[in-house]
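Thread: Newbie trying to understand structure tokens

Hi all, I'm a second-year student working on a class project, and my supervisor (Dr. K.) asked me to get a predicted structure for one chain before our next meeting. I've only ever worked with sequences, so writing a 3D structure as a token string is new to me. If someone could post the tokens and maybe explain what I'm looking at, I'd be very grateful. Here's the chain:
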Amino acid sequence: QCKNNLKQMGLALHNYHDASGVFPPANIRAYNSTTLLEYGNGFAWGALILPHMDQAGLYGLLDFNIGCFEGTNKTVILSLNGMPGVICPSDANRSRTIGINVGQPNGMTSVPNTSYFGTCGPFIYTGESTNTNYASGFFRTQNGPAVSISSIRDGTSNTIAVGERSARWRTDGSWLGIQSATQSPIGGASDPVNNVHWYLTYGLYRPGTSLPAGDTVRVSSDHQGGVQVLMADGSVKFLSENINHTLSGDAADAANVPFGIGCNWRNGVAGCADGSPPTATPAGTGGMWNDKQGMRNLMGVYQRLHSGNDGLDVGEF
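---
Reply by user tm_fold:
Sure, no problem. This is what the structure looks like when written as tokens:
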């Protein structure tokens, strides 16, 4: 059933692409163009594909011109007792609904929970980035570059779109949208794109099936030996928890190495930052993105599968 859930999401994402020419963004109405920060009260990609998941009625009740948990949207979403097809049957610890920042502005006592999370790339990056080297994953924020089949240069069969996450690790999850803990309707504080309710933590951490409860957000499951992932071509594949994955060389991440933390894309100390060092000539030629051999050393097969345009081979996986 878990595999079928992901297949249905794949069909919905491709139907959205057929209708719009691009895949849905990770979120909408969640970015403040004045403060250049996450707005914190936006719809997620799960809401955007509702008409393609036999939920056209619910989609019609939502007002996408206001925040996800504001006005009439709040009433509609509070009335829902979960969503069909968005929780893996083996994810026994996950409830149908969950509260988000209860007691805070636009906090919600009940929103549909989910076991499935989109990926935004191989490593941590700034959610607002329009740099496609940072934002190389299947999902990007609304202001980021749109993703289409043709823009996934590594091939849709070699790029992860969605993965599952077990509530045994983290119970957070919201199919329709997210609310920052400190946000008021006008926005202000930053709500990172890798908020635990939005996504999994990219390819930074290896897949997990036997890690401690409460461990860092990652693709994870209660299946034996691995996890199910939806590829960008709509196929579903089972990835072993032992898939090739490159660990970090950053001393600051030493405590996490036993749990499989990968290179932090923004950390120059670890040698995998994008961008140009002061000595780079011409500007834009520096940084790991332009050093493919360096990238091969720092990106295992698992990290490469989370990026749609790194230009690296993945082989069999």
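A couple of things are worth pointing out once you decode it. The chain has six helices and eleven strands. Confidence is low (pLDDT under 50) at residues 181-196, 266-271, 273-286. Feel free to ask follow-ups in this thread.
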